[in-house]
Specification:
415 residues, alpha/beta, nine-stranded mixed sheet, 33% helix, globular, binds iron/sulfur cluster
Length: 415
């Protein structure tokens, strides 16, 4: 039986930003959930739950029963010619159920956070890359190059996770170089034991090309590259070359030219690996995008931004990106269980399988409120480095269905 008295739950796994922290402490009292101890702003905001009534299922903004909402969604989907399943903020079980449903209805699949993923795919599709893992960065990286702005606002405990007090192999002298950004107060606090420097840059890809040339032993003509003085780039190249395990990281979603940054960072790491050991550690992964992408690969052989039609699948990273696919879709199925993220503007029929606190500018045709994985029900999500799946536990008794349950009810199965 669930413990409904006030109690502390330790080692809670967090599924929000993709970093996969597994040491959260939360206070649970009945249906109320409050973070206890220090927690990042993202988790503090998304974990916090009050003991309030669940929102009502609705059709065109009018309350209806759960069964009526499921039935209406089924009617809309059965009449759809080109449905788009987007948002896709759900655990692996929710993604499985959506793919099962799309086996009958057809549809395009894309995740709300896929822009960074596909900027990175541009590099991996052309050249492949030598990617490292969170554990390797924690324990082995002695020089970390952070390309672009401080990632901490999106990944609140990033440097705390990457720079533990006692790494297994990296030693005490760890360097962090920000190229094109400066660490904010939170990042600086987490990097208190590291040697931190930052270089402003106006053109990150150009600066990375110059760094790659310098690491490769070439002499460059010019005083600065990408807005960085040559002498500063030479110092960074020397630090990277002298590292026993250098790592280059960036957040593709935050960089307008993230595809070029990914490609040039990959080339830099390739060059470093001629003489030392190095890897890329691309950031991203909110709302289980990595899990959904893995699921697509297992089930269809294609990543996100894939259409299922007539029992076949077709991948097109431009045509099946949400913004473009919305132009051809007649029905939008928007899924967002981790956060109250409303659907994008759309003129066709809209079914929202969403977070209980979602606020709409325009009422969807059907709103099916669902629980959050890791709070209302157990589930599995993937960490941003793709290699670890994380089990999320339930913190309270669920009063709303999971995405998987809701989708099975839409399909007409047993919840
Ligand atoms: S950094 Fe990310 S995974 Fe860690 S607690 Fe914050 S939101 Fe959760």
């Amino acid at each position: 039986m669930a413990n409904t008295g006030k109690h502390i739950v330790e080692d809670v796994v967090c599924g929000f930003c993709g970093l996969g922290c597994d040491d959260l402490k939360v206070e649970v009292e009945g249906r109320e959930i409050r973070p206890a101890g220090s927690v990042c702003p993202e988790a503090a905001k998304l974990l916090w739950r009050m003991d309030v009534a669940d929102p009502l299922f609705s059709r065109l903004g009018s309350p209806c029963s759960a069964q009526e909402a499921f039935d209406e969604a089924r009617v809309i989907l059965n009449a759809a010619r080109t449905p788009l399943f987007a948002g896709l903020g759900t655990d692996v079980a929710g993604g499985q159920a959506l793919l099962d449903l799309a086996g009958g209805t057809g549809g395009v699949f894309d995740h709300a956070a896929s822009i960074g993923l596909f900027r990175n795919f541009t590099a991996t599709q052309r050249t492949g890359w030598l990617a490292t893992t969170l554990a390797e960065v924690r324990n082995r990286c002695d020089v970390l190059l952070v390309v672009g702005s401080d990632p901490t606002p999106n990944f609140g405990r990033l440097f705390e996770r990457l720079f533990p007090d006692s790494p297994l192999f990296a030693g005490e002298q760890r360097k962090v170089i920000f190229l094109g950004g400066t660490p904010g107060a939170r990042a600086s606090g987490q990097l208190a034991r590291a040697e931190v420097s930052s270089l402003p840059a106006t053109d990150l890809p150009e600066a990375l090309v110059a760094l790659t040339a310098l690491v490769g032993g070439r002499t460059l003509a010019g005083n600065s590259f990408g807005g960085v003085p040559l002498a500063d780039l030479a110092a960074v190249a020397a630090a990277l070359s002298a590292a026993r395990y250098a790592v280059v990281t960036w957040n593709g979603a935050e960089l307008g030219n993230g595809d070029l940054v990914a490609e040039r960072a990959t080339a830099l790491v390739d060059t470093l690996n001629i003489t030392t050991r190095a890897g890329v550690f691309p950031l991203g992964g909110r709302d289980n995008i990595i899990g959904l992408n893995q699921l697509m690969l297992w089930r269809l052989g294609y990543p996100l931004r894939t259409a299922i039609r007539g029992g076949a699948s077709e991948h097109d990273p431009a045509l099946y990106a949400t913004a473009q696919a919305l132009k051809d879709a007649d029905v939008l199925v928007w899924v967002s269980a981790f956060r109250p993220e409303p659907p994008p503007p759309f003129e066709g029929k809209t079914i929202v399988i969403g977070h209980a606190e979602t606020v709409f500018d325009k009422a969807p045709d059907v709103f099916i409120p669902v629980g959050t994985p890791g709070i209302d029900h157990a589930g599995t999500v993937f960490r941003m480095d793709s290699i670890v799946s994380l089990p999320l536990g339930a913190l309270r008794v669920a009063t709303l269905p999971s995405v998987a349950e809701a989708v099975r009810r839409i399909a007409g199965g047993v919840a």
